[in-house]
Amino acid sequence: MSEPINIATEASTVTEHTPAEAPTGQVVRNSALIIVDVQPDFMPGGALACAEGGAILPELAQLLAADRFAHVVATQDWHPPGHISFASTHHKVPFEALELYGHHQTLWPDHCIQNSEGAALHPSLDWRRVDAIIRKGTDARIDSYSAFRNNIGPDGQRPSTGLAGWLHERGVESVYICGLARDVCVLWTAEDAAAAGFRTHVLWSLTRPVTFDTDEATRSTLERLGIAIVDTASL
Ligand SMILES: [Zn+2]
Asked: Ramachandran region of residue 33, left (φ > 0), alpha (ψ -120 to 50) or beta?
């Protein structure tokens, strides 16, 4: 892997890669697959486990091997120690919440500490097929759920990661989003993708939530925003 290239903000980095090989299957034209936070810390046994998180790995590996997308992007939660989203930073209990810069902030267990094993891209997948990696949550003061924009920062703004421009420059019109967690980073990524003008799809079976209790609310939010909920068979 090459060193991350900072293309847009101080809070995120995009690393470009050369695709491993030419596509062999039928490619979904003008499309990108966005793989959100498939990292050991979000798997069962990890610091911030999603329900059944590991269940997405076999089908996701197949999808990557099929090379169905013009571009593949991955995000990687990548926090410095003492990050603002950690309950420990505020001497609170994980999953409590507080108000941060005037907005609700859930406090998480310490997770995805930069350069830790739990923050790695999941070792079971072949990441050579990924064109760009966005490391997010790198600013100690700002949480970052979405692949496109950070959460609200101290100045009341949501800094861009640069991904929307990166995709637009490459002619991408449709995005297909998968990964973890369905009810947090996948949902925020989908909302921002739609707001940025992409035809947006969530590959539901390739996502898992922190808790299934949120599934109904997640579905209704996606439907309200006109975001398609699809499975890989429909590609
Ligand atoms: Zn995080």
From this structure: beta
